[in-house]
Amino acid sequence: xxxxxxxAHGSGGKLAHELIEKTFLEAxxxxxxxxxxDSAVFDFKGRLAFTTDSYVVKPIFFxxxxxxxxxxxxxxxxxxxxxxxxLYLSLAFIIEEGLPWEDLMRILGSIKATSREAGVQIVTxxxxxxxxxxxxxxxxxxxGVGLVPEGVNVSGSNARPGDKVxxxxxxxxxxxxVLSQREGLSFxxxxxxxxxxxxxxxxxxxEASSRIHAMRDPTRGGLATxxxxxxxxxxxxxxxxxxxxxxxxxxxxxxEMLGLDPLYVANEGKLVAVVxxxxxxxxxERMRRNAYGKQASIIGEVRQDxxxxxxxxxxxxxxxxxxxxxxxxxPRIC
Amino acid sequence: xxxxxxxxxxxxxxxIRQLLPPTIEMLSGPxxxxxxxxxxxxxxxxxxxxxxxxxxxxxxxxxxVPGSRTSLQExxxxxxxxxxxxxxxxxxQIARENxxxxxxxxxxxxxxxxxxxxxxxxxxxxxxxGNYRVLSLHKLCPPVIKxxxxxxxxxxDGLMCPGHVSAxxxxxxxxxxxxxxxxxxVVSGFEPLDxxxxxxxxxxxxxxxxxxVEIAYRRGVRPEGNQRALELMNQVFEPxxxxxxxxxxxxxxxxxxxxxxxxxxxxxxxxxxxxxxxxPKGCICGEILRAVxxxxxxxxxxxxxxxxxxxxxxxxxxxxxxxxxxxYGVAE
Lengths: 334, 332
Hints:
Chain A is an alpha+beta fold. Chain A is 31% helix and 23% strand.
């Protein structure tokens, strides 16, 4: 057998069947997938949450994760942010020919481990192989469905003046960990991506309070962009305190060196929750007992004034606007 | 006045102006290497990127800066091979990996950047690399401050001297300002407390009617600077007249490759036509860089000109005055 993926693996012929039956089914086995019908068929009762995302991270392996873990966590987290319990995922690969077999197996292993950790099943999938240059090693798309429990109503437009803003942990780890591995920008750091499935944490939060009004995971665009989205959607102001936002020294240092702002750097295992003030402490306490919420803190509150705007009290006691990310953050000259 | 764009960002980002009494007014100076690059020079870089066989390597923040007609970002979308590097060593590596292509490094920056570019030329020379070139648009800080003060357009009570530039050239390089112009000078670091300490030291000098050069950034700057960096710079470059946006030509304020290393000069090595220079209509970046106007005086600010669709360079660069005012503007 070849040690890399070739065009024939995506042709629908014999090699493609081998790839699916020997590799994918073995790795991800579950009864719904094993039927190998054109679509997965399952019973469902209740309110459905449905989401999709594509993953094109470069490099595909990075400290603390890989594109497979990312593809599972990203979609699970999008479901969880709507208050849904994630159940089933689809998994579609676009593979550039020449991808080492070993890399694909590592990524499948990571998908298996992550979906098991999160308690979701991969019930349908697809594989395409494209010629060299038409993709960059591997692109993955996942879609997911989840069940929104009775009485849960979490939405970006539900933030109300007086609510507390809770952040689940230190920001910027994922973006800086990935950047540290980029071609032409290798700096050594012990930093690892925070890539993690947050559905367990969210379930516990919802158990602790029925007054979680909004949740969102600050991925691309970082915390600043997420808070701006919430402020705009709910037509409220948000005021945060710089001092309360946890940032690791490694992240702060790398950002300074590169001319980036941690507020705009991507996270893959963090969430922002907007919670009624009377429940904020209970939610916070519960979060801190979960491995993915140990460093959770209340970073600010929702205000009636300056609707649509995020304002931050700086470390030295002044205040400034925190805007959305504009364009791609590009490292500076000096 | 804070000369350096990095200081402007610290001041805006932390809201330092709000904390100072109204008697202290902070002016932003021309210390942003991206911003002061003249359109004619930008056009050269863009034209070079279009020369067949050339790989243009550049620091990231030059990519979006609009020249007379287009930007490097647009040139790249049109097929030019423009690559972002994080250090000159990356540019050398690209040159090693592409022996059949010419790799040009876009040398923009002040005395902070020039020594690393000099080192890359020496490294290329040592390896006998024939396909590495530099478009040297480096600029020197003391001559432009002198030009600014000589113009008489701005009256300063104190100068916050650049931290990283001073780490290379030494705080002694500013002695002429306190001596000849009677203006207190303090070299500052980039943390909010560095800046506040620097303001305090400047005010103290004013109150005592003194004018001296002091350092509020002792962990980074020595009076004599970094001798090794200066040697590298002097070995490869020589001063030349340079065009600054908003200030025109300033004598001996730029760096070009000297005779011994002229064959690394991209401007001499290639035949290219940058076309006629055009200035964006209504943009007052030049006056902002001279500190005679502020971003809020500009009619385009925040309306036509935003970081998403910048008209002038001061809105593009992460150290640009307009970008800092736009991104970190006062909340209330």
